[in-house]
């Protein structure tokens, strides 16, 4: 089988959906393929929000923001290893992009703030609803309305090229049959590689054996698809981990639980790290414990300090005991050692000095029953590195664009440098998805 269209988009997460809509709104034919049976990718899992400076919503709330501060915050978060041109473009386009999304049905009316931002610029739905699914629903409804040709359970297996110019892709249909789609422009929006443990470990051996918060389709196909083409890959070893993820279901426990007083205890009933050290240090310490994981332990007073914990409780994530000893028994840990550790920690809190690990913030003693615990281990969260692009969203090879090839979203590298700020992933994927979609559509109409 052999088909022809104007623009092909690989991957129907936030970046791919945005690109497909942008191209289709320019009046060209678009085929959007998605290898999973459902669309949305990792974008479906986004809970924080979407950062932007000077959106209409932000302005209407009287928030005083500036593009320059957004750029500064992002570069500081990325330890100044980001591609500054791309960050500037992202910040400059961010406000308009929020308006674009709202016009297409997204609810981003609530504006708050995530770590590393100096101004309230994290846009999210009202009523505490998760931003990712809201965005995916809105974009998917718009794509539907535009009659974008969406094909799920269809996997891109090869990007075709002739004399350095892209000619289309080869895919596998839901029944396993290969076919070719010819097009002048191809947009790679396949997401990251956080769910591909061997690939993660090959770029960063410290992450060997880590689980992931990512969906299964985050397997790094963008990397394998472009290998033969010899595209530029940048900052591949920059991979963000999160230290408190439940290993049995890959659900993330928010950092604020530790911030509000929870401690980490190993299977010998002992603390083993300053719980508030950086993500990489805490992650590594957990992996050195028996069973390569630990228990996050807290009491009712910590629970009462943080609404999110009720959610974990209601989902059945927490083990509960009326005393430290009862909790220890349920966890199969020595009662005596567990109790001694809690008593010891409480005395550190009382004297405001952690003599074991020098934790500097000791918000409260753990002495109000019931006591709670949840098993946690580090997991791969976001892959910052990836395919190098320029300001037109074109894929680079030896720093020069490959004609007809575009990329957007987590598959690309350079925007977040060595550390991505919460709320910056979504703005990245929609800004560069739109740019890639617009430019691919224009190219496909060139004579
Ligand atoms: P982003 O945030 O960059 O949009 P997502 O993870 O949200 O990334 O979306 C990427 C999507 O691409 C996922 O739905 C994933 O299943 C899909 N995908 C990955 N590899 C392929 C492939 N080879 N063919 C088709 N779709 C793919």
UniProtKB/TrEMBL annotation:
UniProt name for this protein: Urocanate reductase
Family that this chain belongs to: Belongs to the FAD-dependent oxidoreductase 2 family. FRD/SDH subfamily.
Enzyme Commission number(s): 1.3.99.33
Catalysed reactions, as listed in the record: dihydrourocanate + A = urocanate + AH2
Cofactor note: Binds 1 FAD per subunit. Binds 1 or 2 FMN covalently per subunit.
Known cofactor(s): FAD; FMN
Organism domain of life: Bacteria
Top-tier EC class: oxidoreductase
Gene Ontology CC: one annotated term: membrane
Keyword Lipid metabolism: no
Entry keywords, A to Z: FAD, Flavoprotein, Oxidoreductase
GO molecular function: FMN binding; oxidoreductase activity, acting on the CH-CH group of donors
The keyword Kinase is assigned to this record: no
């Amino acid at each position: 089988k052999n088909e022809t269209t104007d623009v092909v988009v690989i991957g129907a997460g936030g970046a791919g959906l945005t690109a497909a809509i942008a191209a289709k709104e320019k009046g060209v034919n678009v085929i959007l393929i998605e290898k999973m049976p459902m669309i949305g990718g990792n974008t479906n899992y986004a809970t924080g929000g979407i950062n932007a400076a000077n959106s209409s919503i932000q302005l209407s709330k009287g928030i005083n923001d500036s593009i320059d501060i957004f750029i500064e915050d992002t570069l500081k978060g990325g330890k100044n290893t980001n591609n500054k041109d791309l960050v500037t473009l992202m910040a400059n386009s961010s406000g308009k992009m929020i308006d674009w999304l709202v016009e297409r049905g997204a609810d981003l009316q609530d504006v708050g703030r995530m770590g590393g931002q100096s101004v309230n610029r994290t846009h999210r739905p009202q009523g505490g609803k998760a931003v990712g699914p809201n965005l995916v629903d809105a974009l998917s409804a718009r794509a539907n309305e535009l009659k974008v040709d969406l094909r799920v359970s269809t996997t891109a297996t090869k990007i075709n090229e002739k004399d350095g110019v892209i000619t289309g892709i080869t895919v596998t249909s839901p029944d396993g049959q290969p076919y070719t789609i010819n097009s002048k422009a191809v947009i790679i929006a396949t997401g990251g590689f956080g769910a591909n443990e061997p690939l993660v470990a090959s770029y960063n051996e410290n992450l060997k054996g880590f689980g992931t918060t990512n969906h299964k389709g985050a397997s790094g196909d963008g990397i394998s698809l472009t290998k033969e083409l010899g595209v530029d890959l940048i900052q591949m070893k920059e991979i963000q981990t999160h230290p408190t993820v439940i290993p049995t279901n890959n659900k993330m426990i928010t950092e604020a639980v530790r911030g509000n007083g929870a401690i980490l205890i190993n299977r010998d009933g002992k603390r083993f790290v300053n719980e508030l050290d950086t993500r990489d240090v805490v992650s590594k310490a957990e992996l050195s414990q028996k069973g390569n994981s630990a228990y996050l332990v807290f009491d009712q007073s910590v629970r009462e300090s943080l609404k999110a914990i009720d959610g974990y409780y209601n989902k059945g994530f927490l083990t509960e005991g009326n005393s430290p000893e009862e909790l220890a028994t349920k966890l199969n840990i020595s009662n005596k050692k567990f109790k001694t550790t809690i008593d010891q920690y409480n005395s550190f809190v009382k004297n405001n000095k952690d003599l074991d690990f020098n934790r500097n913030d000791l918000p409260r003693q753990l002495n109000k029953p019931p006591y709670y615990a949840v098993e946690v281990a580090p997991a791969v969260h976001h892959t910052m590195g990836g395919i190098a692009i320029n300001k037109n969203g074109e894929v680079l090879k030896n720093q020069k664009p490959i004609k007809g090839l575009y990329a957007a979203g987590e598959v690309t590298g350079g925007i977040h440098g060595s550390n991505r700020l919460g709320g910056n992933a979504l703005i990245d994927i929609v800004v560069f998805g739109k740019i890639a979609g617009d430019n691919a559509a224009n190219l496909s109409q060139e004579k």
